[in-house]
Each structure stands twice: as structure tokens, then as C-alpha cells.
């Protein structure tokens, strides 16, 4: 099958949607499909052979974060050229309602279109206001996927229609077989995310850290991600700052090793999450997970069965749970076992098969429509069947 995938966000700035598209493309290629991904990217940026640049993206505030999007005449021209050259059996557009390549592709594409909705934003006035503009494009979509029940709810409330829920995928074995790193072991808490994005929750964790360190003095916090490191620790007493180790941006391999090494992985995110891919990665690596009780996180963690939850934005509750987990090796081992079993439902072997089933459904439907149209023309002009 020839599959075209549209990424709305800049390929050279890592994020959950980009990782999902990358892993999906590579999974499909490994199965023998022909895949091309169109994504915003600087033309000078080295790209995988299956990625085509649609030009540089610009930063736009979006859903409590900063999304790097691509929109305009040049982008539209590149979209049309990519669609023309690709002759795809199916186009898979991610975030078709965002003002980026997804919407441009939805306008320009012909044939079967599958759309995946990642956003969870229950009070988006902008999306409601934009609906009359979006409607003609969205009506061309053959099948809709939402990565979680909360992304599906956002779609239903703002744009109408419905979607099948297929979660983000993870290569579970990649994380499970990673080798722990000795210097990251021994009384360590892990955090991965953009340091200077408040909704990722690092300020909440920093507020909880003094209590954690007071009761578990040897604990270290390992932070992976980009942002202002000095600003991140400025609320901590000076004598505690050396207990925070900043690792900067890490490779996929080092992310897996970090998650395999820590005693507890903490996800203190405060909102705007529709899924929680980092929780799945942490469980895959066998890390006991402690996360804020966002609806999306609770769903990923089986309502607390595969990881512990604390009250969102409550630093005291976070500290209480972290101290208890750090002091209870038995409970941590229980969470490892439960998480490792639960996470198998998110492996690409399952998620990829579900997405392929959607592709096959829309392409089969399109073929049936085309056959009906040809039959109608034959009957109209008295032509014989093939």
C-alpha cells in the first residue's frame, strides 16, 4: 500500500505527535508498505529518507504550548506537489483542524483520507469559531481516529461526528531491553519534558522536592529536556540544587536507559494532555510511574492500577506519594509488574494493526464506490462489463 502521512508540527522540534508519526511510518515500512511523510522542517535539516520537507515552520501558541506550524502559499504548493507525485492509496492526516499542513492537505487531497485527532481541549472557543471554515475540509475525511477518549470528546463537542479510539503506539521491547546506567541509579526520580513549558509540571515537582529531600536525603532528580536550567531551580534552597541533575536533550536510547534506571518516574503535568506517551514509555521500561490525576493519564494508567496518581497541581500530595514509593521497594516492584503487563496493549504490533485496518476499510470502500461508478457509466452508455 502507498501511504502518505501528514505531520502538522515541525519535524526538527521533538514532540509526542512527531514521535508517533515517526514510529508509525517506520512500523509500516518494516511491514513492506511504501510510506512518505510530509512535515514542516528547515530545508537544511537532515531528514529520514521517508520524510519530505514542506518548508520552515513558525511558532504559534496553541493548546497551552507552542506549536511550530506551517501555512501559506509556498506550503500549499508543496502539499499539492507531494500529493501529485505520491499517488497514494490513502492519506493519513494528523490534526487536520490545526492551521498547518493538515488543513492544507485536507483541502487539496482526493481519495481516501484518514484523520487522527490528538488534541484534548474541552473549551476551545477558537475551534468552535473556526468550524464554518473547517467544515468543507473535514467533510472529505473518510475515517477518524482519536488517540484517547478525551481527544474523541474534543472532536465530538467542537467539530461533530465521531471517531474510533486507537492510542499512540510504542515499541515496548525497545524500552524493555534498554540497559540501565549505573550513574542514574540509586534513589533517583526521573522527569522528561520541556523545562520551560509550565503545563509539563516541573514547577510542581520543584515545589515538592524540598519535602522529598528532607525525608529521603539521598534522592536525586534527573531532568531530561530543553529549557532554562537556572530558572528551573531558582525556587529551591541553594543547598538542594546540586540534587537536581540536568541531562539536556537525550537520544531515544538514553531516554530508554534513563527510564530503566530511575526508582520512580514522575509525570506532574497540569493539563492539555490527550494521552500521555511518556507514561507508556516509562511502563515499557519497567519504571514505577507516579502521575497527576489528569483524566487522560488515569486512563493510560488503568485508573491507578498500573501506576499511582496524585491530585493535579498538589505539590504536597506529590511529595507524600513520592516519599512513600521511594521507601517501599515492594510497592515499586508491584507497579513494575503491573505496568509491564498493562503496557502491551500499546505496542505497535497491536496499534499498527488497528490503524492498518482503518486504511483497508477506507480503501476498500473507495474501490467499491469506484466500481459502482464505473458500472453506472457502463449501463448508461451500453458498455460491456470487464
From TrEMBL:
Swiss-Prot/TrEMBL GO biological process terms: carbohydrate derivative biosynthetic process
Protein name, as recorded: Glycosyltransferase family 4 protein
GO molecular function, one term: hexosyltransferase activity
Gene3D superfamilies: Glycogen Phosphorylase B (3.40.50.2000)
Record bears the keyword Transferase: yes
Entry keywords, A to Z: Glycosyltransferase, Transferase
Glycosyltransferase subfamily 4-like N-terminal domain segment(s): 14-173
Record carries keyword Transferase: yes
Amino acid at each position: 500500500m502507498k501511504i502518505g502521512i501528514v505531520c502538522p508540527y515541525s519535524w526538527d522540534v521533538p514532540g509526542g505527535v512527531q514521535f508517533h508519526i515517526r514510529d508509525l511510518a517506520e512500523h509500516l515500512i518494516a511491514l513492506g508498505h511504501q510510506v512518505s511523510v510530509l512535515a514542516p522542517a528547515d530545508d537544511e535539516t537532515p531528514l529520514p529518507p521517508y520524510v519530505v520537507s514542506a518548508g520552515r515552520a513558525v511558532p504559534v501558541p496553541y493548546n497551552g504550548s507552542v506549536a511550530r506550524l506551517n501555512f501559506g502559499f509556498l506550503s500549499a504548493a508543496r502539499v499539492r506537489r507531494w500529493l501529485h507525485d505520491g499517488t497514494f492509496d490513502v492519506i493519513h492526516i494528523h490534526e487536520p483542524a490545526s492551521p498547518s499542513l493538515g488543513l492544507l492537505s485536507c483541502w487539496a487531497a482526493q481519495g481516501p483520507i484518514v484523520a487522527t485527532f490528538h488534541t484534548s481541549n474541552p473549551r476551545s472557543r477558537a475551534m468552535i469559531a473556526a468550524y464554518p471554515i473547517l467544515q468543507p475540509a473535514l467533510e472529505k475525511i473518510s475515517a477518524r481516529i482519536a488517540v484517547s477518549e478525551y481527544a474523541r470528546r474534543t472532536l465530538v463537542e467542537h467539530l461533530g461526528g465521531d471517531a474510533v479510539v486507537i492510542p499512540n503506539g510504542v515499541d515496548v521491547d525497545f524500552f524493555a531491553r534498554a540497559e540501565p546506567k549505573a550513574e542514574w541509579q540509586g534513589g533517583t526520580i526521573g522527569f522528561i519534558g520541556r523545562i520551560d513549558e509550565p503545563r509539563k509540571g516541573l514547577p510542581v515537582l520543584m515545589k515538592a522536592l524540598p519535602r522529598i529531600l528532607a525525608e529521603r536525603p539521598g534522592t536525586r532528580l534527573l531532568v531530561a529536556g530543553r529549557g532554562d536550567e537556572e530558572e528551573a531551580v531558582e525556587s529551591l534552597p541553594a543547598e538542594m540544587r546540586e540534587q537536581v541533575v540536568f541531562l539536556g536533550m537525550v537520544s531515544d536510547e538514553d531516554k530508554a536507559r534513563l527510564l530503566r534506571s530511575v526508582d520512580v518516574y514522575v509525570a506532574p503535568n497540569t493539563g492539555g494532555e490527550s494521552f500521555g506517551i511518556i507514561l507508556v514509555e516509562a511502563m515499557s521500561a519497567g519504571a514505577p510511574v507516579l502521575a497527576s490525576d489528569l483524566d487522560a493519564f488515569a486512563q493510560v494508567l488503568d485508573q491507578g492500577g498500573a501506576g499511582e496518581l496524585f491530585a493535579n497541581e498538589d505539590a504536597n500530595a506529590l511529595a507524600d506519594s513520592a516519599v512513600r514509593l521511594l521507601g517501599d521497594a515492594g510497592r515499586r516492584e508491584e507497579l513494575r509488574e503491573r505496568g509491564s503487563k498493562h503496557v502491551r496493549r500499546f505496542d505497535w504490533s497491536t496499534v499498527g494493526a488497528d490503524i492498518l485496518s482503518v486504511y483497508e476499510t477506507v480503501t476498500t470502500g473507495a474501490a467499491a464506490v469506484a466500481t459502482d461508478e464505473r458500472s453506472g457509466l457502463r449501463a448508461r452508455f451500453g458498455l460491456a462489463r470487464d
